[in-house]
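This protein record is not my work; I was only asked to verify it. Where you disagree with what is written, explain briefly why. This is what I was given:
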Amino acid sequence: MSSTARKSRFHSPDPAAPQAPCESPGCARTGDFKAPKSPQNLREFRWFCLDHVRAYNSSWDFYKGMNADEIEAEMRADSSWQRPTWPLGKLGARSYATAGLEAEIAAFAFGGPPRPAPKPELPKELREALNVLGLTWPLDMPTLRTRYKELAKRHHPDMNHGDAHAVEKLKRINLAYATLRGKLTAQPQPD
């Protein structure tokens, strides 16, 4: 059994309910579901039955009674989880992002050094094979062969007492090696 408590479903009655009647006028059912009293008082609750808490929540308007400036201030505070924020570059430290941006702008505006061409995107099967073997592209055959031998020796079932995990890992290594070897032998080799 898990040490964490099981979460109740959203429509389950609150176990901390006071077992009092629903606060909706004329309702005789018990108030098992809580709803905040007001936007200014979010930690105090009213208790309703399921039908009335749904009606209460559907008519809830957090911004009711606020003007446009108050709504905007509340939304801005919510975007930073009600925590204070500071402009970039303040507090005696210069932001690395700002410095990098300034260098990019200077290079663009004044014809700075040319940027390297973007690397072509590798097919998914080659990226997966490279990840399995822990290699990067471009790759040559001797590097591939050396890495394959190292991993095959480390994950061979005989070296791991027949562990099923090692068998599966070796299968993935063999498949990755075959994929990359096929790609390397299909490429024309430099003279």
The first strand starts at residue 33 and ends at 38. The radius of gyration is 32 Å. The chain has two domains: 13-85, 124-186. The CA atoms of residues 72 and 124 lie 45 Å apart.
